[in-house]
């Protein structure tokens, strides 16, 4: 009986441990969901190890100081106006001006006392920035016809068009592409905007134009991807997008590849795929040699196994894992977050130096921090008595799985501590899909990815996408296929600068 009783007590203790662990995990999940719905997305952490907050030391002095100060209620304070010039507006000096004269009635231009006419002594002038609906016009092309002696007719050829026999000019097509892929307007809204100006174009026809423009611009997107892969320094990420096929709505993916050795590379290339299989990115980067920045998705880990690829995992993702670990050893978690914060602060200063000095600073200041992180995190994972399915255990395991690659960025001056270049390139897609919701087909997804590549690269370079697209759509059909790089956004921008300087002079 005694043995049976001891066994029963042991079973109860084991059950208590299991249930306690499960409760802790469920509470952690609930806290995470509540923060996603109602909390701030900022990964700012208030350390829990601050001893001044945990003790009552100095409480008397603090109480006296609070009594001496008047109580301030934020809601009762009037917001001071911004006087540093940031609340002003600016517009071009050559902006057209329409003058409206508001004069007093003629019977009031006479003095009521003497009956003499009032003398005009000046004017009060007020300037207001105004708006008119966007103007559209019909481009009429007249081509005289000449009779030949043999009975034939001679007339000038129409310029090559990006869409043969299309009734829309390249300027109009560029405007539609910009509204959809820069301003994130779905085509039904574009159709409604045009309808308010008595221009009736169906959404179906607009969609056909967009797809045909995307297909025509694909060689430019491919040339930009070629330039990125040749840079030897790329940033990769992927995000889901919906598309329609015969079976209804399907989940596809846009793979983002950014590249270059600048602090913030400008080229952004998007590739549409109908799934998230590893083969997609492996195919895109099949001939790549150089540095790869990414998160820990399995496809990138496969690429890291290649000798030709130097994988630099993203410390921002590591930080996020520890930020979300709200149970477990909180002082240790706060220490990890603080050490990662130091890495980012040092990196910010390092990018102000020359490439050689940057490498030296990394070796002297960042390498010891990573070594200490690795040592203590491995020890915590092995000997820390961590709950097996907790987010804290997940964060520790996530870090330890990346240990062989964490210091790769220290070897290359152009490499980054994070993958934020690709993360920023993904953000417009997240905004866009909330508006246009899905691509109309897989072919539409591929065309959309092409146009997004050019439009978002333009935005990164400070180029007006509509102006760029209009010029490129006119020139692409006549441009040499061997010199497509001349039409890429940065090359296009560089070629226009001398002309702008000449025109201003």
Shape: extended
How far apart, in Å, are the first and last alpha carbons? 104 Å
Helical stretch count? 16
**Mean pLDDT, nearest integer?**
84
The helix content is 40-55%
Q: Write down the secondary-structure element order.
A: HHHEEHHHEEEHEHEHHHHHEHHH
User: What kind of assembly state do the chains in view correspond to?
Assistant: single chain
Any low-confidence stretches, pLDDT <50, length ≥5?
A: 48-60
Number of strands: 8
Largest sheet: 6 strands, mixed
Radius of gyration: 32 Å
Beta content comes to 5-15%
Structural class: alpha/beta
Q: What do you see in this structure?
A:
By secondary structure, the protein is an alpha/beta fold. Among the domains are: 214-312 and 436-496, no CATH class; 315-418, no CATH class. The chain has helices spanning 2-38, 51-54, 59-68, 170-181, 187-195, 203-231, 278-284, 298-304, 315-323, 330-350, 355-383, 391-400, 420-436, 442-461, 465-475, 489-504; strands at residues 146-147, 153-154, 233-245, 248-259, 267-273, 290-294, 309-313, 438-439. The longest helix has 37 residues, at 2-38. Residues 48-60 have low confidence and may be disordered.
Q: Which structural traits does this protein have?
A:
505 residues; alpha/beta; 8 strands
Outline of the structure:
The protein is of the alpha/beta class. It is built from 16 helices and 8 strands. The strands form 2 sheets. Strands 3, 4, 5, 6, 7 and 8 form a 6-stranded mixed beta sheet that branches. A two-stranded antiparallel sheet has the order 1-2.
């Amino acid at each position: 009986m005694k043995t049976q009783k001891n066994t029963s007590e042991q079973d109860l203790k084991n059950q208590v441990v299991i249930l306690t662990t499960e409760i802790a995990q469920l509470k952690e999940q609930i806290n995470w969901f509540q923060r996603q719905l109602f909390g701030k997305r900022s990964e700012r952490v208030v350390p829990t190890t601050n001893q001044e907050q945990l003790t009552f030391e100095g409480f008397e002095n603090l109480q006296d100081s609070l009594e001496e100060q008047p109580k301030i209620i934020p809601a009762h304070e009037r917001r001071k106006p911004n006087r540093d010039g940031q609340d002003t507006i600016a517009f071009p000096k050559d902006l057209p001006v329409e003058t409206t004269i508001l004069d007093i009635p003629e019977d009031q231009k006479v003095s009521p006392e003497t009956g003499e006419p009032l003398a005009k002594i000046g004017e009060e002038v007020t300037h207001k920035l105004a708006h008119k609906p966007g103007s559209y016009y019909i481009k009429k092309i007249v081509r005289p016809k000449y009779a030949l002696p043999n009975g034939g007719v001679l007339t000038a050829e129409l310029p090559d068009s990006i869409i043969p026999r299309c009734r829309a000019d390249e300027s109009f097509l560029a405007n539609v592409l910009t509204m959809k892929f820069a301003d994130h307007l779905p085509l039904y809204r574009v159709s409604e905007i045009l309808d308010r100006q008595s221009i009736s174009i169906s959404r179906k026809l607009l969609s056909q134009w967009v797809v045909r423009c995307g297909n025509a611009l694909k060689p430019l997107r491919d040339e930009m991807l070629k330039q990125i892969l040749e840079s030897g320094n790329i940033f990769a990420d992927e995000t889901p997008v919906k598309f329609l096929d015969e079976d209804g709505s399907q989940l596809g993916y846009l793979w983002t590849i950014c590249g270059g050795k600048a602090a913030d590379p400008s080229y952004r290339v998007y590739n549409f795929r109908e799934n998230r299989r590893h083969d997609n990115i492996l195919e895109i980067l099949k001939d790549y040699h150089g540095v790869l920045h990414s998160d820990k998705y399995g496809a990138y880990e496969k690429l890291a196994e290649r000798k030709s690829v130097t994988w630099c995992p993203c410390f921002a993702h590591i930080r996020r894992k520890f930020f979300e670990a709200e149970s477990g050893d909180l002082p240790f978690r706060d220490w990890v977050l603080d050490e990662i914060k130091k890495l980012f602060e040092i990196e910010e200063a390092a990018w102000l130096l020359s490439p050689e000095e940057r490498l030296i600073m990394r070796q002297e200041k960042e390498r010891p921090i990573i070594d200490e992180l690795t040592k203590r995190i491995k020890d915590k994972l092995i000997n820390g008595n961590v709950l097996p399915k907790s987010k804290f255990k997940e964060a520790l395991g996530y870090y330890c799985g990346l240990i062989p690659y964490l210091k790769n960025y220290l070897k290359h001056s152009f490499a980054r501590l994070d993958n934020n270049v690709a993360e920023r390139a993904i953000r417009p897609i997240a905004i866009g899909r909330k508006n246009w919701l899905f691509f109309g087909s897989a072919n539409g997804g591929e065309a959309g990815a092409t146009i997004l590549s050019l439009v978002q690269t333009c935005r990164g370079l400070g180029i007006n996408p509509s102006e760029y697209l209009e010029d490129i759509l006119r020139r692409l059909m006549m441009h040499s296929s061997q010199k497509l790089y001349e039409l890429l956004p940065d090359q296009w921008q560089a070629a226009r600068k001398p002309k702008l300087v000449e025109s201003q002079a």
